[in-house]
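Could you help me review a protein record that somebody else here produced? This is what I was given.
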Amino acid sequence: MLNPFAKEAEKHTTDWVNRFELVKSEKAWERFRRAKFAMLSARAFPTAGRFELCIAAEFNTWLFLLDDKNDESMFGKMDFLQMVHSFVTMILQNNAVVAPDEGMPLANSFADLWKRMKRIGSAAWQKRFVKSMTDYLDACLWEVENRMRHKAPAVADYIEKRPYTGALFADIELIEVLESIYLPDEVRAHETVEQLSLACNNVVCWANDLFSFDKERRQGDVHNLVLVLKEERGLSLEEAMNEAARMHDAEVRRFIALSESLPAFGEETNDELQRYITVLKAWMRANLDWSFGDTARYRMNITETASGNWLISRL
């Protein structure tokens, strides 16, 4: 399902990127136009309003552009990410925008996002979002430390950190303020609900690893499920891809099983929880539809090289 404000969000995001000078060269603009970042959010948040969808589209665009700039900065240079960690923390904690010239476009654009998010998010929500962003940036620094030590993470360590390096927990926090879905704290913290969020996160991130492993392999990066499986288990590339696809499909099955075994919280809360799960499903489906159909960011036909059945089609 595509949000009816998709085209408006795409235009607004392009204007926003231009206003904050996040993309400058014509070559970078062409890459940006072909990536269609806003379409991912338009699929992931299908019933968000126009104002809310623009926040989602621009936040996810910001994350993608940060990833690209990180790659351009000598492939994950520590001082670049430390700079980003510092200015994001200052913006989230006291609204101060302090960054060197090279970081000002990212800093100013993030400050603009945070200002709009605070207009629609409660103090409790803001606290949760701050934590999710801090966890994301801490995990990015963990990746850089591994690269500096030329250390490939163990599969177990990679699986533990991957939900944070993908920043999807921040997007999951956005569900409340973008889709107006309010879960009581005790429901949000329930083990089954937390595991549903984690399973959604894993499905999206592991699918992305399958889409992007060739790019990361060429860059010499090992922070990818396919590549850590290949390294630790001595698999061929095809075997590692098949195993990653198998794990992806098993996680989809786990999500389905969890969603069918929810405890009863009361009729009103159960209705809100079902709406929440619908958005999690939308996120998983959106990631595939965007990756296969909308964007030119990934150019790999995984269906010809891996055995995964992409069970998301059943959701």
In short: The longest helix spans residues 191-219. Residues 300-310 have pLDDT under 50 and may be disordered.
